[in-house]
Amino acid sequence: MNIKLTNNKLNKIDADITIEFLTQEELDAHQNTHMLKKTGFTAEQDSTLFLHESSLLVCGVEKHNNDFLRSASASAIKALRASNYAAAKLELKTTKTIKGFVEGFVLGGYEYNEYKSEVKERSFTDISFSYIGEDLQKAKDTLTNTLIVANATCFTRDIVNTAPQELNPPSFAKLAEKLADENSLGCDILGEDRLRDEKMGAMLAVGRASIHDSKLIHLSYKPANPKKIISLVGKGLTYDSGGLSLKPATSMVTMKMDKAGGCAVLGVMKAISELKLDIEVHAFVGAVENMIGGNAYKPDDVLVSRSKKTIEVRNTDAEGRLVLADVLTYAQESVQADYIFDFATLTGACMVALGQYTTGLMGFSTKLKHDFMMKAANDSGELIGHLPFNRHLKKLLKSEIADISNTASKPYGGAITAGMFLDNFIKDENKDKWLHFDIAGSAYTETPWDCNVYGGTGAGVRFMSSFLQNIK
Ligand code: BES
Ligand code: ZN
Ligand code: ZN
Questions:
Q1: How remote is the CA of residue 347 from the centroid of ligand 3, in Å?
Q2: Side-chain half-sphere of 190: how many Cα atoms within 13 Å?
Q3: pLDDT one-digit tens code per residue, 359-408
Q4: What's the rounded Cα separation, in Å, for the pair 169 and 31?
C-alpha cells in the first residue's frame, strides 16, 4: 500500500473515494446527515459506511485523537480492502493525527498470507492525504517516521507468524543476519560451541532436547557519536512445548509466539537504523526451542548459569527466565549500557494480572518507569501497566538445594516473581538501568483489537521506538 501526503487541495487529488471521519456531533452537522442517518449510521466508533453515489466512505470516531483514529482507520482500511476501489483520499487538518491514521491503515491492513494457496487479489493500493496546513515538511517527516516504525512492526509480526517448523533457532539467526546485512548492523551469532565456552548452562539446558542448535544473536547499531548506549534483550523461544513439564494440548497452540520478545527486538533494530537515530543500540536474542526427549532437561535438575548462580529446575515450562538469565548476564558483560530493556512472553500470569492487551512493566527505577510510562507508552498507543516488585514475593523463589528456584512456591503474582527471578541476574550497578517487559498477552491475538489483526501484534516495537526517538 502506498501512502502519500501533498499540499494539494482535496478536490485536486485524483482518487476514486474520499474517507471522512465523523464524530456524532459532526454527523449531525453533515451535509448528508439525512441520507447518512437513514442508513442507520450513528458515527459509532469503528463503524464504517460507503456512500457509493457520493464516492464517500464515512467512519465513526469518538474523538479526533490518535487512539480513536488508529482503530477507526483500521476499520476503514479493512472496508476499503474488501471493496473494488483502488485509491482513497482524505483531508488532514493537523500533523498531530498523522500517526493515528497511518498506524491504523498500515497495521490494521496487515495480512499474513504466506501459507494460503489462494490469496484474494486486492484492488486497493493508494491513500493520499491532503494537507493544507503550514508545516508541510513536518507533516512529511512525521509520515516518513511513522511509516518506518509501522513497517518495522509488520516485520516483527511476520517473524512471529512464521510457523515453527520454518522458524527455528538457526533460521532465526539467518534472518537476523539478513536484517544486519540490509541495515548495515554488526552481527555476531553464538552457536552451541561458543555458548558452552561462555558457560551459558541455563540457556543450553533449555534447548538440549531440540533437534535445532540454540543460538545467541547479537546485533549492533553504532552511529559515530551516540548520545546513549542501550541494550535490548529478547526471549526467542521459537517453540515452547513446555518441555517435560509438558503444556496441555490447548495451551500449546500459539506457542510459536514465544519468540515474540526476540522478534520485537529485531523490529526495533530495523526501525532505529532506518530512523538513523544517534544512539548506540545492541540487540541480544536467546533463540532456543523447548522440546521433550531422552536428553531433555528435567524438573530436579540443577543448572549452573553463566553468572555462576545455581538454579533448581522445578518446572521446565518456566524456561524463558532460564534463557534470559544467561542472555542478560552476557549482555551486561559485553556492553556497558545506559539502559537495559528485556522483552519476553514470560508468564500467563501477566495476562491474569493486566488482561490480554497490556504489556507488564517491571523494574526498580521509578523515574525510568514513570517517564517511560507517561511518554513512550502514551504516545505510542501501546498499553503498558506497572507491576510492583516486593521483597515478600522475592522470598518465594528460595530453593532448598540451589541458589534459586526457577518457579515460585506460590502461584499468585506469577508475573512479578518471574520478573524478580530475572532481577537475580542483574548486576547491582545496573539495577536502576533495567526494565523488564512481559508481553505474554500483548504480543499475540486471536481476535482483532485496535490496529491488531489475528496473529503477532508487534508489541514493544512502537513504544520502544518512541522511547528511543525521544532520548536526550
Ligand atoms: N511462554 C510461557 C508464557 C506464556 C503463556 C506466554 C501464555 C504467552 C501465553 C512461559 O514459558 C510459561 O510457560 N510460563 C509458565 C510459568 C510457570 C510454569 C511458572 C506459565 O505462565 O504458566
Ligand atoms: Zn514455558
Ligand atoms: Zn515460554
A1: 7
A2: 24
A3: 999 999 999 998 777 778 888 999 999 999 999 999 999 999 999 999 99
A4: 58
Which grid coordinates belong to 72? 477507526
Angle between helices 260-275 and 169-182 in degrees, nearest 10 = 10
Could you say which of 174, 199, 247, 375 is catalytic? 247
Q: In what order do the strands lie in the sheet with 404-405?
A: 302-304, 310-312, 404-405
**Using CA positions, which residue lies closest to atom 5 of ligand 1?**
348
Q: Which atom of ligand 1 is nearest to the CA of 242?
A: 13
Residue 321 annotated among the catalytic residues of the structure: yes
As a whole-number percent, the residues of the chain with pLDDT over 70 amount to: 100
Cell representation of residue 151 = 513497517
Residue from 99, 140, 256, 321 carrying the catalytic annotation: 321
Ligand nearest to the CA of 417: 1
Q: Which atom of ligand 1 is nearest to the CA of 317?
A: 13
Contact 323, 240 (CB under 8 A): no
Q: Do domains 2-133 and 161-469 have the same CATH topology?
A: no
- Residues 250-279 have pLDDT tens digits of 999 999 999 999 999 999 999 999 999 999
Please choose, from the candidates 323, 329, 339, the residue with its C-alpha nearest in 3D space to the C-alpha of residue 281: 339
Residue 317 Cβ inside 6 Å of ligand 1? The answer reads yes
Ligand 2 is a single-atom ion; what residues have CB below 5 A from it? 240, 317, 319
Which superfamily is assigned to 161-469 in CATH?
Zn peptidases (3.40.630.10)
Domain residue limits, the chain: 2-133, 161-469
Q: Which architecture does CATH list for 2-133?
A: 3-Layer(aba) Sandwich (3.40)
The answer on pLDDT for 234 being more than 80 is: yes
pTM assigned to the model: 0.98
Residue nearest atom 17 of ligand 1, based on CA coordinates: 318
Q: What are phi and psi of 408, to 5 degrees?
A: -80, 155
Tell me the CB-side half-sphere exposure of residue 211, using CA atoms within 13 A: 4
Query: Which of 238, 252, 259, 347, when mutated, tests ligand 1's pocket best, judged by the most ligand atoms within 8 Å of its CB?
Result: 347
